[in-house]
Every structure is written in structure tokens, then in C-alpha cells.
Specification:
Helix 3 runs antiparallel to helix 8 (about 175-200) and helix 5 (about 100-115) runs antiparallel to helix 12 (about 295-325). The chain is mainly alpha-helical and about 325 residues long. A two-stranded antiparallel sheet has the order 1-2. The longest helix is centred in the middle third of the chain and has 36 residues, at about 135-170. The protein has one domain (about 1-325). It has helices at about 1-20, 30-45, 50-75, 80-95, 100-115, 115-125, 135-170, 175-200, 210-235, 240-250, 260-270, 295-325, and strands at about 275-280, 280-285.
């Protein structure tokens, strides 16, 4: 039991270190890229059915392949616990993306310092809207929206499921427990990738994307709300407007088409006393002050502290479970 506890905690800490220090894994071996190839293969097979059944088949087929591939890797490396730990940690680091989440926001701010056109091009990779004519304030808004929205699926959600299953395997004896401990956040990342690739309401994807989008909504329901609370706490600790952060979350979080994304975007808008606007889609927060590029730095700091606090919480929670046992 002690060895399992240390494995769970150390794998978490080392995977965070890998992501923060080294960033993303090489594209050719990145599990999410491989997931994308699997999804695209089955998408081409099933999209011709033109029914929601195609989306269900896409989910089932993709899940089965990931389960099998991960189990093969687990069997190959399970003969040595140290080698297994290394592979486990590297793969776990691919289920979240702290480095990229924060770096992309900082990079756009640097581009804004150079030229508006360069910033427009950079932000076009982060959002689906047209950025050709965005003013500086709308570029800043788009960056903060992308950053705050992705706190949930880029870190909070996969680590939430890692923690939940870490507690389960600490309480109950399960065969191949380390395999399942890694499989759970991996499957979360698969469902998130499915939603990112096909979860749209266009004529082409509305049928095949229905189930992937709904599954992603369900999986993010609790983590997004937890993330929102942590943003509020972080706002208080950073001497931002914590009271307004909570107020705006309660008032505006449901303004977004997604049932989940508003919980971190609205809290961030409230904490910074700014208004985040996607024209024709939502308005979050109040224009208590004019938004400017320095708000990107403040949003990055808010996101950093949110991630740190959540990480400390899950370490404490896992430790308490271990001590009680």
C-alpha cells in the first residue's frame, strides 16, 4: 500500500515536471496525436452513415483501440517497476498541458507588443472566430477566454479523474491497478480529443459529433465547477476581485453555449473586473475597467495559482486517504 501511494504521488509530480519543464512530447510519439489518427481513421469509416449511431460507433471503436494499445504498453514495461514508472509518468504528462496553456497566452501578449497583425495571426490558432479585423481589446479578450476555458480540460479534469481512481485503487484491490490508473485520464483525453475533432454542429459533423460532444460535456460537468471555485479562491489570494469573481460566475456562467466553459471564463472576467465578449455568442462580466494586454499577465497568474492550488489539494487528499488507511 505504501509503495502504491508513493507511485501515485510521484507519478503525478514527475509528470507535472515533465510538462512544465519540457513541454509537449514530440509529435510523432505524442499519444494525443496518435489518438487523433485513430479518430480520423474511424471517422472516415462511419461518417457516411449520416446518423447519430456513427458517433457512438466512433466512440466505441476509438476507446477499444486505446484500451488495447495502452494494455500492450503496460504488459511490455511491467516487468520492471522503474521502467514502468518512467513510461507511466511520460504518458500521464501527455494527458494534460500546463506549459502550452500558459505559454500560448504569454506568446500572444509578446506578439501584441510587436504588432497587431502578428497578434491577430497568433490568436487565430486559439479560437474559431475570424481574427482578421480584431482590435487589441478583442484579441486580449479572446486570449483570456481561451486560457480560462481550457483550465478545465487542459489540467483540472484529467487530474480530477486520476485522483478519483487513485483513491479507488487505494481502497480496493484491483488487478492491473496501475494500468487502470493511467487508462482513466487517457480515456478522458481521448473523449476530449473526440469532441475537439468532431463535436461541432456543422452539416458534416452534427450527427457523428453528437455523442462525443455530449460525453465531453458530462465528463467536464463536475471538474469545470471545481475549477471555477478554485479560480475564485485564487482571485482572493492574489488580491484580485474574489467577491466579484464568484458573483459573475453565478450570474454569467450559463451565458455560454457550452454547459461548462463559462465557469472558468466568467470567474476570470469577474476576478479581473473586465468583460469577455465573443460577438453574437456571449458576454461575461462587467466593464468595470477597460480590458488591456496587461490583463493577459494577470489571467496567466490567476491560472497558475488555480493549477497550483488544485494540485496541492489532490496531494493532500491522496495523503489523507493513505494515512487513514
Amino acid at each position: 500500500m505504501i509503495e502504491l501511494f508513493y507511485f501515485i504521488i510521484l507519478a503525478l509530480l514527475f509528470s507535472i515536471a515533465i510538462d512544465v519543464i519540457l513541454g509537449e512530447l514530440p509529435t510523432k510519439v505524442h499519444p494525443v496525436v496518435i489518438m487523433g489518427l485513430i479518430i480520423n481513421f474511424f471517422k472516415e469509416k462511419y461518417i457516411k452513415f449520416r446518423s447519430r449511431l456513427s458517433g457512438l460507433l466512433l466512440v466505441i471503436s476509438s476507446v477499444l483501440i486505446v484500451i488495447i494499445l495502452l494494455y500492450i504498453l503496460y504488459i511490455i514495461f511491467s516487468f520492471n517497476v522503474f521502467l514502468l514508472f518512467i513510461v507511466f509518468t511520460v504518458l500521464l504528462s501527455s494527458t494534460f498541458s500546463i506549459n502550452m496553456l500558459l505559454k500560448t497566452a504569454v506568446d500572444v501578449k509578446h506578439d501584441l507588443d510587436e504588432s497587431l497583425d502578428k497578434a491577430r495571426k497568433s490568436v487565430s490558432y486559439l479560437v474559431s472566430r475570424s481574427t482578421d479585423e480584431l482590435t487589441e481589446s478583442f484579441i486580449v479578450s479572446a486570449v483570456i477566454e481561451s486560457l480560462s476555458e481550457n483550465i478545465t480540460d487542459s489540467y483540472i479534469a484529467p487530474m480530477f479523474y486520476y485522483t478519483i481512481f487513485g483513491i479507488i485503487i487505494s481502497l480496493y484491490l484491483i488487478n492491473n491497478q496501475l494500468y487502470y490508473l493511467l487508462l482513466i485520464p487517457m480515456l478522458y483525453r481521448l473523449f476530449n480529443t473526440l469532441d475537439a475533432m468532431v463535436g461541432y454542429t456543422t452539416d458534416e459533423l452534427k450527427d457523428i459529433g453528437f455523442f462525443p460532444a455530449k460525453i465531453d460535456d458530462v465528463l467536464n460537468y463536475i471538474p469545470s465547477r471545481i475549477a471555477g471555485i478554485y479560480v475564485v479562491i485564487s482571485a482572493y489570494l492574489l488580491k484580485f476581485d474574489g467577491k466579484n469573481s464568484f458573483h459573475v460566475m453565478m450570474r454569467d456562467a450559463r451565458n455560454c453555449p457550452s454547459p461548462n466553459s463559462g465557469y472558468t471564463m466568467a470567474t476570470t472576467a469577474g476576478a479581473l473586473n473586465i468583460q469577455l465578449i465573443k460577438k453574437g455568442t456571449y458576454v461575461l462580466g462587467d466593464r468595470n475597467k477597460e480590458i488591456n494586454k496587461d490583463d493577459i499577465t494577470r489571467a496567466v497568474n490567476l491560472s497558475k495559482l488555480t493549477i497550483i492550488l488544485f494540485t496541492l489539494t489532490i496531494i493532500i487528499l491522496l495523503t489523507l486517504v493513505h494515512v487513514i488507511l
